[in-house]
Every structure is written in C-alpha cells, then in structure tokens.
Amino acid sequence: MKTTKLIYFLRKKFPKKNSLKKDYLGLQIGRFKKNTNKIAICLDFNSNVLKKIIHKNVDLVITHHPFIYGDFDNVIQKDWLKKKLVNKIEKLKIPIYSIHTNFDCSDEGMNVILAKKLGLKNIQKIKENKIIRGGTLKYSMTIKNFAKYVKKKLKIPHVYILKNNNKEIKKVAICAGSGADMFQIAQNNNYDIFCSGDAPQHIRNSIKNYKYNYLELFHEIEKVFIYAMKKIINKIDNKIKIYCIDEQRYPEII
User: Fold this and answer.
1) Which distant-in-sequence residues (6+ apart) come within 8 Å of 123 by Cβ?
2) Pure H helices in the chain
3) Which of 65, 132, 233, 243 is most buried by a 10 A CB count?
4) Within a domain: residue 242?
5) Cα–Cα distances in Å, from 96 out to 3, 34, 145, 153, 212?
6) Are residues 122 and 96 located together in one domain of the fold?
7) Which of 78, 104, 130 corresponds to the end of one domain?
8) CATH code, domain carrying 44
9) pLDDT-derived band of residue 254, with 50, 70 and 90 as boundaries?
10) Other CB atoms closer than 10 Å to residue 5's CB: what's the count?
11) Is 51 helix (H, G, I), strand (E, B) or coil?
12) d(Cα 29, Cα 31) in Å, to the nearest integer?
C-alpha cells in the first residue's frame, strides 16, 4: 500500500487537533518508505521490540506512546539507552510513528474500548473533558465486587481501590493511563467511581479528602491499542502484514 495513503487515513481518523496539549505525535524518527506492506504495532518501542522485529523487514512501526517524548536532542542526551536504540533504528531505516492522545480522545479510542469491555451502557464524553468517558453498569454493586468485576472483564491480574464512601457503584468514569489527577471531573459529573492510573501519593490523598471512590488500572492496560490498531489497519488494507508486539507485563504483587 502507498504509505502516503495509509498515513493520510490515520491522520484523518485520529487528527492532531483531537490530542491533548504538549503531546508528541506522528513521525518520531526515520523517513516513510514509498510503500508499506509490513507493520509492527506496539505500546512502547524498546530494545525488546526491536529484537522481535529485526528480521521481519517491517516498513513501519506504529506505537501508542511516543518514542521521543520531548525535544529530540534533550531526550537522547539524557537517556543513553534510547540514544543507542536511535542509532540502531537509523541504521535499519525503520520509521516509527506514534498515535497517542489523539487515539485516546477518539470515539473509537482507548477509553471507549475499555468502557465497552466493562459492559458500560450510554457511554459518553464528559463535556469539559475530551478524553474521559463515562457510562452506566447494568447493575449496581459494592466497590469490592466492582473491582473483581473489572479484573474479570479486562482480564487483568489485579487492581487496587480507594474506598472513601459507602456508595454502590453504578455510574463509572474511565481514563486509562496517567489520568488520576482528573478525578474531580468525574466526581463533579456525579460518577460513583473513577478508574484511571499512575496515581501518586498526593493525588491519592486528595481523593481521600474529597471522599471519592477510585480504582487504579495499571498503565499496561493500554495495550488494547495494539489490537485495536490492527483492526483499523486491516479495514484500510487487509493485505498489509501486521505484527502485534505485546511485551507488556503487569507488576507482580508480592
């Protein structure tokens, strides 16, 4: 397939204007090839991914998280492992293209996918926020039963909860990734619980002070991007060979 046609479609489906501010989208390194017949898709590009694709002769790597998050020179100056990886990629002439918060904010993107996996009904965008999605469970349940339900539906080994009131859970808001600091948006829109990730101690403390319920999803849950993107590209051209590189591992709880 002509690479220009593929990139045009992806940019139209996930436009930059839909991304959050100060995001680093699009072509991260390298130059697009004239034709794209083989694509590797991953959550993060690293040396382990490179080992898995190096003999597959891929024409393009698509990641969710930007390979270079920030100014290129600053990033590789501070991260010698990434600099080493950049040198290898440049020699192999493999372009890396990232679709990040423009995917997350999409009505076919990250949080809609997860909301559907949770069986939420009436899924909608919260008016003052374009990335969070909210919906309603079929039945109310206690927060502990909801946590078990999430583990089962998302097929994940563990979650943790912050139970700060006795409300049963019916209305659920979700934002995968680093969204914990947006909990008040969910609370102000009368959701019973906010599911997000990367909550530091001071945010957990704020959630407690506001007497709100929270469920932590590890950032690795975003690997649903890999398989969603495969379906999207298959609809564009089902002749493209796609390698789904899922090397994400959840933290082990001891």
Assistant:
1) 112, 115, 116, 133, 134, 135
2) 3-13, 47-53, 72-78, 80-92, 101-104, 110-117, 143-154, 183-188, 201-209, 224-236
3) 132
4) no
5) 13, 15, 41, 32, 40
6) no
7) 104
8) 3.40.1390.30
9) confident
10) 13
11) helix
12) 7
Q: Which structural domain, as residue segments, surrounds residue 181?
A: 110-220
pLDDT confidence of 14, banded at 50, 70, 90? very high
SS3 164: coil
Q: What is the pLDDT of residue 177?
A: 95
Residue 199 lies in a domain: yes
pLDDT digits (tens, 9 = 90+) for 53-88: 999 999 999 999 999 998 888 998 899 999 999 999
Is the Cβ–Cβ distance between 54 and 118 less than 8 Å? Answer: no
Query: Per residue in 18-66, pLDDT tens?
Result: 999 989 999 999 999 999 999 999 999 999 999 999 999 999 999 999 9
State if pTM tops 0.70: yes
How many structural domains is the chain composed of?
2
Q: Could you say which of 55, 89, 104 is where a domain stops? A: 104
Whether residues 125 and 179 share a domain: the answer is yes
CB 94 within 8 A of CB 61: yes
Q: What is the pLDDT of residues 202-243, one digit of tens each?
A: 999 999 999 999 999 999 999 999 999 999 999 999 999 999
